[in-house]
Specification:
Helices cover 48% and strands 11% of the residues. It is an alpha+beta fold. The strands form seven sheets. Strands 1-6-7-8 form a four-stranded antiparallel sheet, with no helix packed on it. Helix 24 packs across helix 27. The termini are far apart.
């Protein structure tokens, strides 16, 4: 007998079916060292059921045929919590909602693997059977007897619990051998002809249906056959068929044959009876002419009410057997009430109520008993999405997925069974155009197109892209060592990547013909950047020099710093969209606009470049400046900046942040900026709630309004404009 420690180990591994000794003492109080009788197992379930009853044969054949057509797959577990949720969803009734939720959870719960020993074993369980015939045999025995036995044969050395072959044992020939109350299941005994074969319990997986017949001898360890509940129905069904057969064979002899002269002796009567049976009884003699040596009379009894109800009685037993196995009776060619619609629903109900529960039971038991030997992370599952009868639910699923903007394209593809695309665009979230992302909310920028290149460039990188860039940065830094002028990081590579995306969209003529996507072009730009970073020279056109470390021979950091200073000097001329920048350009005498990429996104400025802007502004009367803001407006801007930074700068555009810095620094406004401030605050006042935060969430309307100074700045700007009017 194994030690307590060994038994605990075996239980954890999932190969031992021993139960707790205290529980055993309570349940199996009279159990001895013997074979437990199976009072549920009746050979008649097979001989009088499957072999001779066409209804039961059809039911079992239908279940096994459909179940064996559903493919299995082997996965690697990623998240046990999500896996538990997935099992719960697939165990219950499947509908469009549970299908969607199950597939979404499945993505996080496990990932598909290929070529594992477990997968190879199930594809070919033994030399004599394929997976389809093996699973058919397993399910058929289960549906007939309530018990399924899988016998695993391992290598000679048994250093591991891996099996080389799996066989299905004939359930009606298997019994459980007990070793007393401490080991209720010691061995399994298969009796074949006059020989009894004993098999170790650890080498057998017993999948039993529920059996409420708890006896102290352990009889409930056997599963109850569905036909135990339907025994009377099965018997009645068989008798109906037998009666129908006898009626057909005796259809011309339901009456009394009498002699008019009463001259028949008993011997003659018997001879006449035998001759009548021999020559005129049976379906093959039906309708034949009767010839007798004497004058005889025939009295026909006709058909009784019971005879007329024979077909109805038979149909009733068919329905009962279908109910026992959760099979819609329409699927057994019962066309009395069949229509196209209810046949579709019947097929769906058949899979949901009969096939899938059976496969779920097999799946869970295989994962308990078999999978741990091949790796604790491996998980066997069936692809229920492949069931044709559930495709109508898939159509509903497509419609629901189309409306689910909170899912990425790749998540939708995976839910539909198409797999995940390498295109990183499909890892982004796309929302309806009448919705505005909170991060991009601006009350003076309501006409912005959130699906242009600039919006895409500002999206946060996906986990997949981050992983790829981290790998490139790690490999590159390992090659260049500690050289500060050559090292890089993920943030810098992502900036290069975003520029590549933007270049693909805004300058398509520069893209090589072999490039098929913006992601491919962006990653090529990253590789080019890493090349110049390592080698100090460009392979092709020079770009991204501003992202190279200071001190690198190709870096333009100093030039960028100079441009940044010049940019700050004319920060009043910053706009969120090109239309506003163009209006200002015309006002100061320019004909074009240009843009700058900042940490907060793309901003626009009047004139074709910074030099032309500075020249145009130089011609404007420098006295036209407005400053001396109220202290309360400065305080509002400081408070709004602080709250906005607390929530990762989620409530302002680049212009809003710049305006707050102008007010805090008491930088004078030009007349055009003064008008913009007054116009914006007049519109935004309606969104000011007076609260910056509520229930742990930022209130963007209040923050955005006060970044521009809030009520004090609104009153001050109005007073300045009124003075000009006067």
């Amino acid at each position: 007998m194994p030690t307590f420690y060994q038994r605990i180990q075996n239980a954890i591994k999932g190969f031992n079916q021993d139960t707790n000794p205290n529980y055993n003492k309570f349940i199996y109080s009279t159990m001895g060292n013997n074979v437990i009788g199976n009072n549920q197992n009746d050979d008649n379930f097979i001989s009088k059921g499957y072999q001779k009853n066409p209804t039961i044969y059809s039911i079992i054949n239908l279940i096994t045929k459909c179940a064996s057509a559903i493919p299995f797959q082997v996965y690697e577990k990623q998240n046990e919590t999500q896996l538990g949720k997935y099992r719960s969803l697939t165990t219950g009734l499947l509908n469009k909602d549970s299908l969607l939720k199950a597939e979404m959870i499945k993505k996080d719960a496990m990932t598909l693997t290929e070529g594992t020993d477990l997968e190879k074993l199930l594809h070919r369980p033994n030399p004599a059977q394929s997976y389809a015939t093996w699973i058919t045999e397993l399910i058929a025995f289960g549906k007939l007897t309530g018990n399924r036995y899988i016998y695993g044969i391992g290598p000679e050395t048994r250093e591991s619990k891996k099996f080389n072959e799996l066989y299905v044992l004939p359930s009606h020939l298997v019994e459980i051998k007990s070793n007393g109350i401490f080991e209720p299941v010691d061995k399994y005994v298969m009796s074949y002809h006059t020989t009894a074969f004993e098999i170790e319990s650890n080498d057998v997986l017993h999948i039993a249906d529920f059996n409420p017949d708890y006896q102290s001898d352990g009889s409930h360890l056997y599963g109850q056959s569905p036909l135990m509940a339907g025994l009377r129905t099965m018997t009645t069904n068989n008798e109906s068929v037998e009666t129908s057969l006898k009626f057909l064979q005796n259809q011309t002899a339901r009456g009394i044959l009498t002699s008019d002269d009463e001259s028949l002796t008993p011997t003659q009567a018997q001879q006449l009876k035998d001759a009548f049976r021999r020559n005129y009884q049976g379906s093959y003699n039906a309708g034949d002419i009767i010839i007798t040596p004497k004058k005889l009379s025939w009295t026909n009894f006709g058909l009784s009410v019971a005879d007329l109800q024979l077909i109805e009685s038979y149909n009733a037993t068919v329905k009962d057997l279908c109910n026992i196995y959760s099979i819609p009776v329409q699927l057994l060619n019962n066309t009395e009430s069949s229509t196209y619609n209810n046949m579709k629903e019947a097929k769906k109900a058949f899979y949901v109520n009969a096939v899938i529960p059976e496969l779920v039971k097999v799946r869970d038991e295989l994962n308990r008993w078999l999978s741990p030997a091949y790796g604790d992370k491996l998980y066997i599952d069936f692809d229920f999405n492949s069931i044709p009868e559930l495709q109508q639910e898939q159509e509903k699923l497509v419609d629901q997925l189309t409306k689910s903007f909170w899912l990425t394209m790749n998540e939708k593809r995976q839910a539909m069974g198409y797999g995940v695309s390498d295109n990183t665009v499909l890892d982004d979230y796309f929302i309806p155009s009448n919705y505005i992302p909170l991060d991009d909310f601006s009350m003076d920028d309501t006409n912005k197109n959130f699906f242009d290149a600039g919006y895409y460039e500002n999206k946060q990188m996906s986990a997949k892209l981050r992983k790829a860039l981290e790998k490139k940065a790690e490999d590159h830094n390992e090659k260049v060592g500690n050289a500060k002028t050559k090292r890089t990081n993920v943030r810098t590579l992502y900036a290069v990547y975003k520029r590549g995306i933007g270049a693909y969209r805004t300058n398509p003529e520069s893209v090589r013909p072999t490039v098929s996507s913006p992601e491919q072009w962006a990653m090529a730009r990253v590789n080019s950047f890493l090349y110049v970073l390592r080698n100090g020279r460009f392979r092709s056109g020079q770009h991204d020099t501003d992202l190279l470390p200071e001190g690198h021979p190709k870096s333009s950091k100093k030039k960028e710093e100079e441009m940044e200073d010049r940019y700050k000097a004319v920060s009043d001329e910053v706009y969120d969209n090109p239309d506003e920048a163009m209006d200002r350009a015309k006002e100061i005498g320019c004909t074009l606009t240009h843009s700058h990429n900042t940490e907060d996104g793309t901003v626009y400025m009047p004139c074709k470049d910074m030099e032309e802007l500075e020249e145009a502004l130089g011609k404007i009367n420098k006295q036209d400046k407005f400053g001396g803001y109220p202290k309360s407006a400065i305080a509002n801007a400081k408070k709004a900046v602080k709250v906005n930074e607390k929530y990762n700068n989620s409530c302002a555009t680049a212009v809003g942040k710049q305006r707050a810095q102008d007010i805090i620094s008491n930088r004078s406004f030009s007349l055009s900026i003064l008008k913009r401030v007054h116009g914006y605050l007049s519109r935004a006042k309606a969104y000011d709630t007076g609260q910056y935060e509520k229930d742990g969430k930022i209130i963007c309307g209040t923050v955005s309004y006060n970044l521009w100074g809030g009520d004090p700045m609104l009153r001050w700007s109005k007073s300045q404009l009124d003075k000009l009017d006067d």
